[in-house]
Each structure stands twice: as structure tokens, then as C-alpha cells.
Design goal:
Layout: H1 3-18, E1 31-38, E2 43-50, E3 55-63, E4 71-81, E5 87-95, E6 98-102
Antiparallel strand pairs: 1-2, 2-3, 3-4, 4-5, 5-6
């Protein structure tokens, strides 16, 4: 299915975010909020917040189901507090047009 490549792109983006965490001290964050709604093959919606300032919200919807243009569209955002104390937010869309990140900390074209 076409949306497999979108899922791979989302995973790579999230792995890149995970690598920005400091490696020299163990994580002591606790989960403050976790919401999850799996609506089957038609999509999902989840979000969480942790005590170290990380928040994430993501939703996905299946578009054009049953057609040759079937694709999953994912929208989300993640925020975290960097070691310098600044909060960064990454908003993204991942769909048939690829992974499209947006954030003030990213280079602009």
C-alpha cells in the first residue's frame, strides 16, 4: 500500500527526535497524560504529556479507501524542552506527498 512509505517516514522523523535527548543521564520522566483512540483501519488518534515537558499529539485518517489512490494522512506535533531550556515544537504532516515537518527551529526554504 502507498501509505507504508509514509509510515516509514514518520518513524524516521520520530527516531531523529529521540536522538536529540541527552544520553548521559537516565530519563526520570513520568507520564502525566496518555490518550489513545484506535479506530481500526480507518485511522487513530493519540496524545501524551510527560513530566519532563514532552508533549505529543497525532491523528491519522485513511483517505480514498478502496481506490488506487488510497493513502493514510498523518498530522501531528511534538514539543520538548532542550538542554538549553528552550521549548521546541515540531508540527508535521505525512501523507501521499511525503513527510512535511514545520518548526521555527528548522531551516526554511
Amino acid at each position: 500500500m502507498k501509505y507504508n512509505s509514509v509510515i516509514v517516514l514518520v518513524i524516521f522523523g520520530l527516531v531523529a527526535i529521540a536522538y536529540t535527548a541527552p544520553l548521559d543521564e537516565p530519563s526520570k520522566a513520568t507520564i502525566l497524560r496518555y490518550d489513545n483512540e484506535n479506530i481500526g483501519v480507518d485511522g487513530y488518534n493519540f496524545g501524551f504529556e510527560t513530566s519532563d515537558g514532552v508533549t505529543r499529539q497525532e491523528e491519522a485518517q485513511l483517505k480514498n479507501a478502496g481506490t488506487e489512490n488510497e493513502a493514510i494522512s498523518v498530522r501531528g506535533s511534538v514539543s520538548w524542552v532542550a538542554p538549553d531550556g528552550q521549548t521546541y515544537t515540531l508540527n508535521y504532516i505525512a501523507d501521499e506527498n511525503g513527510f512535511q515537518p514545520q518548526g521555527d527551529h528548522l531551516p526554511h526554504n
